[in-house]
Amino acid sequence: xxxxxKLNQSSFSHKIMQKFEKTDDTKIIKKGDCLIREGEIEKxxxxxxxxxxKLFYLSELGERIIRxxxxxxxxxxxxxxxxxxxxxxxxxxxxxxxVKIIRKEEIENLIYESEESLKEYSKFLEELLAQQMAREIDxxxxxPNKRLERVLERSPDLFxxxxxxxxxxxxxxxxxxxxRIRKS
Length: 184
Known about the structure:
Jelly Rolls, four-stranded antiparallel beta sheet, 8 helices
């Protein structure tokens, strides 16, 4: 699911946030624990009230971070959530994290409550797809400086929430290179 910062204009996003405000279903995840692991089927959406997580997959090159979530973010293993197929991803706390939880059935109830809600959901998915594509461009951009610039345009407070070593891994560079770029 997308972060809320870019989707707050969406009516459907507003409905989801109202659901999160009303839910008492919360969970605290210790650093290193997972909300979901590869092979599990995602049945929930999480709103991070405190802490931070990384969404990653394991490859022959090791851990490949593709997304972060931190206070104010909505996150889940979206492909698994939408297809009911096993997740290819892990969502792991990078520090103690508290999340609010909405179950898939509740989201589906929102989607199908009216024709208008279905249209809003479609727009929501379009916005989400645009965000996902922007992230892919971040990772395909060859210049380390440009990758960092693109990420900070979208998430200017990223360094306040996520340790440098994880951001460096996301940007496909070592922490020393990231530190040097930030200083220049």
